[in-house]
Amino acid sequence: AFKWSRLDKDTHIGVKATGKDKLLGFIAGTTFKSIINKETMKTAGVSLLTVHTKLRNKRLTPILIKEMQRF
Questions:
Q1: Which of 54, 58, 51, 62 has the alpha carbon at shortest distance from 26?
Q2: In angstroms, rounded to a whole number, what is the distance separating the alpha carbons of residues 48 and 23?
Q3: Mean pLDDT confidence for 48-67
Q4: 23, 43, 46, 66: which could join 29 in a potential S-S bond, CB 3.0 to 4.6 Å?
Q5: How far apart are CA 13 and CA 51, in angstroms?
Q6: What global pTM score does this model have?
Q7: Alpha carbons 3 and 38: distance in angstroms, whole number
């Protein structure tokens, strides 16, 4: 069973260039609690993942996913 929790600001992560107002990458998701075999786990689902077109081969996507997994 899935229980949706409220939307956290921690689940919105953006990467900006230093000294500029350009957004290089963004990941957004929702947190929820899943109950498996009577054990409750806090999990996240990614709903949006964007990376600037010129940076798509620079391995920015795995970094954004790892940051989402940290919480």
A1: 51
A2: 14
A3: 91
A4: 46
A5: 12
A6: 0.71
A7: 13
Q: How far is CA 60 from each of CA 1, 11, 26, 29, 67, rounded to the nearest angstrom?
A: 33, 17, 10, 17, 11
Of 32, 33, 28, nearest to 11 by C-alpha is: 28
Cα–Cα–Cα angle for 59, 22, 12, nearest 5°? 65
Measured CA to CA, the distance from residue 34 to residue 24 in angstroms comes to: 32
Q: How do beta strands 39-51 and 2-4 pair?
A: unpaired
- Looking at the chain, the number of H-run helices and the number of E-run strands are 1, 4
The per-residue pLDDT for range 21-44, each reduced to its tens digit, is 889 999 988 877 888 888 888 888
